[in-house]
User: Fold these one by one.
Assistant:
Number 1:
Amino acid sequence: MTTQLGKRLLSLLACIILLATIALAATEPPMGFPEPLTSKNFKEELSNGLHIIDFYSPYCPHCRQLAPIWMETWEEFKEESKELNVTFSQVNCVESADLCSDEKIERFPDVRLYNPSGYIKSFSENPKTKDSLIAFARRESKNPDNLDADLDSSIKQSEHIKGFDFLELIAGKATTPYLVSFWPAKDLKNGDDTVDFENCNKCHEFQRTWKLISKQLSAEDIKTGHLNCEFNPTVCKELGFGDLVKITNHRGDREPKVALVLPNKTSNSLIDYPKGCSAEPNGYIDFAKRTFANSKFPNITEEELRRKVNKNIEFLQEKRPVSNNDIHLVFTYDPKTVVTEDFDILEYLIEPLSKIPNIYLHQIDKNLIDLSRGVFESMYEKINYNTSEAQKHFNEEYFTMNTVSQLPTFFMFKDGDFVSHVYHGYSTTEMRNIEQIMRWVQRYSTPLVSEVTSSNLKDLLSFQTEDYSNLAIQLVSSGNDKQIRGSNTLINSLLLASWDYEHIRMENNFELINEKRTKKADGIKLLREKKAPADKVVDKMRVEIPHLDHSKLLLGYLDIAKEKNFFKRFGITGDHKVGDVIIIDKSNNYYFTKDNFGNTLTSNKLHLLREAFVSLNIPSKALYASKLKGRLINSPFHNAVSFLDVVHQNGIYGYLLIIVVIITIAKGPSSYRRYKIRKHYKAKRNAVGILGNTEKKKNQD
Ligand SMILES: *[C@@H]1O[C@H](CO)[C@@H](O)[C@H](O)[C@H]1NC(C)=O
Ligand SMILES: *[C@@H]1O[C@H](CO)[C@@H](O)[C@H](O)[C@H]1NC(C)=O
Ligand SMILES: *[C@@H]1O[C@H](CO)[C@@H](O)[C@H](O)[C@H]1NC(C)=O
Ligand SMILES: *[C@@H]1O[C@H](CO)[C@@H](O)[C@H](O)[C@H]1NC(C)=O
């Protein structure tokens, strides 16, 4: 009887599985959906534009998951496909095993971008959705590197460098700079040789990137070379690239490394590329050009600096977004008093500056204080745009307080920015302290306005949190020419509101500092009146008034045509459109999308945007009752794991955890207060202890 039932159940189960399989397999392809490419038509098909190709196996579960998404993507993109010259295609790697082996397909599904001359890069974003695939297609159709037809007859190829020659280069034999790449290979002669790289998923892709880099750098008189680490193990190990010599694990995460050789230098001539491997050539090109330029400490004139700070910030210039957004660090000296040793510090700056994008090093033999003042004064011409508001005035005293320094020192100017910075170098010691100088540089090391993306948001939010309390993000779009032009206007409005706020922030800091000064002076007076010992008075006089520079704004823009999933990903709810501004409080989990009156924050209403900045940071100076209401972001930006991830991993316990976290947050202030009271009490008790009254006190506890 029981076996009967068992059998029936089994056959029912089999039936369900069969039905499910049929249902899965029965996703009908849309009309006109193309057959997979084969080795016969692959080359010919590639010749007509860009292709995004899904290399799949009919047996892999992830491939089957992707199949219906791929069909939908193809269907939705059909029209745009002709317009943008990008086609979604497939290759069945079971039927076309030869083709997949030629293309070195090692895992399924492998979604890759091809142009007529071959493989460009992989699309590795996961999970792969219709939206993310289409966004990829749109992005790549506009990337001029992809259509570079003459790349294969590239004017200058990367040089094959052997270990000994490399050692000579870094010992001072190089007369031009060299950017050198290091590969986990034995026999890569030409950069584009077909080589089997072991355990290096990114190697093939980087071969093309390297070609693009070689081509672009040859126009800059920077040579490129490549070195086989498996053939030159000693050199590579010395350089710290031991993993390129020997496979240490089987994750396939070895990556080609890159370093710059500076010419005519017998020491410190090799600078490592500071970031991980990327298919995008721009980071490498900026690193090589900028670091080589910085290593020469070029002279700059006041006129050039004035032109740079007066530049208009433009969104999407040429290939680089906001290309005129550089930072200029200027070593400023008086030729009458400077000594040769003063210049030594510049040498030590080359390496740390190579790690900060957009930063350029210069020198000048005259004081830049007048330039700095002049530029700052011109900010006031801008922010007095509203005639119905009281005139805002340049505060000479505050300016002097911030810029006082001996020469030599460093000035920092940013493209498009009226506010400059001066390093407080009061002595030789301060001017030779590389750590202190770099700490100061780091504080101001973001460009005037940064592009915000899903991948750099976290870095921006954790950037110098003590000084920069908010990140203000202007929403823009590169969707079409009109939107691009509109985006320039929007970014400039955000800047204007931020300068308007900057004035209020500075005035407030000035007041606070003056209050502290008055208090200090009063304190000294009081001590004198009480005829306190001289050393007490001197101690009081020595107390330094801290140099306040907090509550600064970090500015960014977000291209919503490029970052379609941004809001969802970070749990920012509601509709968001071009023109809107989002403010994120960097020190907690709040974001703000509404102004003090509950309307959407935009840069069209400058005084309300400024008011939002003031209400958040300096509520005592707010004009309207501060009524901004922040939302709790459900994916905390500064925690490694987002709440959503927690739910994902822990199921129901995840939700419980969230509740616990929420309760803790809600209770936070009171338990913190209790902790403080306890601490305070304890301190008191200890003080009593010093007076010799411990025993009695203890008993009372
Ligand atoms: C698409 O790209 C191919 C190859 O680059 C080119 O020959 C063709 O003219 C392009 N078609 C359109 C419509 O742009
Ligand atoms: C390096 O030195 C050589 C020979 O002295 C010179 O020709 C070359 O211009 C120098 N290169 C740089 C970048 O200074
Ligand atoms: C930079 O300026 C100084 C002082 O004017 C001058 O002596 C020096 O030759 C200049 N250097 C270059 C590379 O032009
Ligand atoms: C000027 O400022 C006033 C008061 O802050 C405000 O009501 C008005 O809308 C502003 N005008 C412009 C053009 O921003």
Number 2:
Amino acid sequence: MVVYWKEILAVLVCYQLYCVEGYCNRKTYRRPHIVLIVSDDQGWNDVSWHNPEVLTPHMDKLAKQGVKLENHYVHPVCSPSRGAILTGKYSHRLGLQFGSIIPNEAKFLPESATLLPEMLKEMGYTTHMTGKWHLGDCKKNLLPTSRGFDSFTGLLRGAGDYFTRQLFGVYDFWENETVYRPQEGSYNTDLFTQRAVEIIEKNNPKTSPLFLYVPYTSPHSPLQVPQKFMDMYPNVINPARRRYLGMVSSLDEGVGIIADALEKSGHMDNTVFIFLSDNGGNTDVGASNIPLRGIKGQLWEGGSKSVGFVYSPRFFKQEGCVHEGMIHAVDWFPTILDMADFNKDKKRNMCGTIDGVSQWTYIQTCRGSGREEFVYQIDDYVAKSAAIRVGDYKMIVGDPRVVDFSFGPTGNISIKLVDPNNNDIRLFNLKNDPTESNNLASRLPDKVKKMKIRLDELRKDSLPIEFPVWESNEIGSPNNIVSTEWCSV
Ligand SMILES: *[C@@H]1O[C@H](CO)[C@@H](O)[C@H](O)[C@H]1NC(C)=O
Ligand SMILES: *[C@@H]1O[C@H](CO)[C@@H](O)[C@H](O)[C@H]1NC(C)=O
């Protein structure tokens, strides 16, 4: 008799995921408000609980009273991570496995993907976003308000000047689908915070569950911050590091103001407050991932291991703890839906369509994990490299550095592939060797063989990337505003 263990396991996992705890037949459930704050390029060593030099008292307070996520992973750059968070799918299943979306590139989160805010809206949530989108902007139906958000205030692309709101001379700041010009000289980080506070104050905490997504651009370059935040670091000599840390502290101030607004408006008692970084820090522009190896964009731990915490007065009974269970960016989609009680009343089932698993039970109890493996990134098309994790082991195939961008003065970009022909295999036991200094590949050939088989299974559903796809000469266009209607794909 053939026993289909995988199928049996899948059924058990699906059932367990959505029907345990006696919730299945409950009629009413008070859906919590969910606030998801994502920082941009904040390194592992750039929060106070990893590095006392960093001043993040507001995050620190929430993290201390909540659950610190110490084994939390994302993809190595912005667009893939944001795509994974909002869809529950790995970047290679979204066609986003190579790099971030760069200006004038006709690349975007597939229109067929269902996004977290769309699901939450269906469940009665009001959904708002303020911050950076970076999941495609070359036509109107790719913008946040077409993809599940009731409102959007912020930038569509990957970065921009914090005061002029331009990138390479092109203006990028929006309210919903209209160009928006805030008061001159105002600082983007403050604008996102203010907008978040307005949304919170306008919402009725008793009748309207709120999903608020705040992907700040801080502390991503350009390194710009009001002087008072730099003055917090008189002993930091490296000017880039000093500016960068000032940006981290201005971000922290924003987190504190948002938390305050949630308290004052009566939301906080019923809120789940999530904070994470979208990828590792870029040490070329002030960040630090010490003691991890590598930086943003790379397959080393420094590219993908992300700081994070969850705070919730309603759901967490114990005061503060450190969660060591493995979590990946793709898990936020089912985890947040689980918080909102998805499926427990309607018995819907997402198993098989997404890569994430709900970690909600494990976060609440502060132990364990719903997964024992994950994908750092699999790119069979451009960089031709991959890294996966199974238990304590990590295997990197190909060049761990992936890609080298260089930007010209007018915003023209040249992309130098590091080495798509590199076939090196690296194997690390991260439990014993968290800094990836001891390559075990030649000593453990059986392990490598097994992981290669797993990698081949995981890469099967890759969506191809067409890259680069240049369709626009919009830079330098007469009105110098990001155009949202130019790609033909
Ligand atoms: C953006 O959308 C929200 C929600 O529909 C609305 O309240 C707001 O007025 C809109 N803003 C603009 C500038 O259209
Ligand atoms: C950008 O364009 C200029 C002018 O054509 C050229 O000299 C420069 O090398 C380009 N830079 C990059 C990074 O492609």
